[in-house]
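Protocol step 4 of 6: structure prediction from sequence.
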Amino acid sequence: EEELEEEEHQINKKMALRSTQRLGRLVTMIPGDGIGPEISAAVKKIFTAAKAPIEWEDVDVTPTFDEYGRSTIPEIAKQSILKNQIALKGPLGTPIGKGHPSLNLTLRKTFDLFANVRPCRSIEGYKTPYDNVNTVIIRENTEGEYCGVEHEVIPGVVQSIKLITQEASMRVAEFAFEFAQKNNRPRVTVVHKANVMKMTDGLFLDCCREVAKKYPDVQFDEQLLDKTCLMITEDPHQFDVMVMPNLYGDILSDLSAGLIGGLGLTPSGNIGKKGVSIFESVHGTAPDIAGKDLANPTALVLSSVMMLRHMDMNEYADKIEQAILETIAQGPETRTGDLGGTAKCSTFTDAVCDRVSQL
């Protein structure tokens, strides 16, 4: 009887250990809308080929409404993200001018995802008008014009509030300088319109100036938004790390993506104050090609690479990144249609899997 009890105890210990190990690598997957399920499946297939120690927990974030009638994500999805602390998200559809609020905005507010990190790097072997682009945009993610406060003053007159706080501005500025220092990037540029919005952008600019004093080894400069757009299209090599309020980051990150081939090639990560991080593709749901095996999964795969590095799984991140970039560089036969190629989503994914299994 004692032997049976000891055997049962050892079995329970092993099961508990396996559970702990599994939970340590459990990631919430939000497949999303439109092409989202297809590109999410591609990521899973590539991770399997790379033998990446990740288990996926799929959740649906179709909005529900709380007792006050406010749109929110389902509780089961919220609890999954809080438990796992890491999520990978496909594109989510947002009704234009009506319907539920942006689910992306809801996720940012729910998990206090204050910093959006958008690397923009040229892919060797895929020619665009600009070579060797290598910038990072860090966008304040919780306030500004996207704080969601709008109302009708009188019929025909509506007002939107731009909210800027010292707390949010300081923490995203701290994050930008820490990011630059940790990644050996020599310069941080704050992008603003404080010449017009003297109080809101003025506060954001002042916070960045204050934080810059604590990082004397990182070069700091300031640039107006409109001039930044001009300069980055003239010569993107003038910029390194850029930090800015919410709306400007949304605009400038898409503009930057156009320099290297589009949103289908650009990853994104949202970093939270409370430990939660959500990595995502930032392109749309592309309903016109959904279900037709034509989608390009590159952006979501590269976002998953960012996720792996965030989890200190650099070996798997490097392997998957190398495989997908080499597949794109190989030529039109292994590129999807948006990159001028002939490959379908499935054949592109298979080509990446073949390459990653050889590394």
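Step 5 (inspection) to follow. Confidence is low (pLDDT under 50) at residues 9-24.
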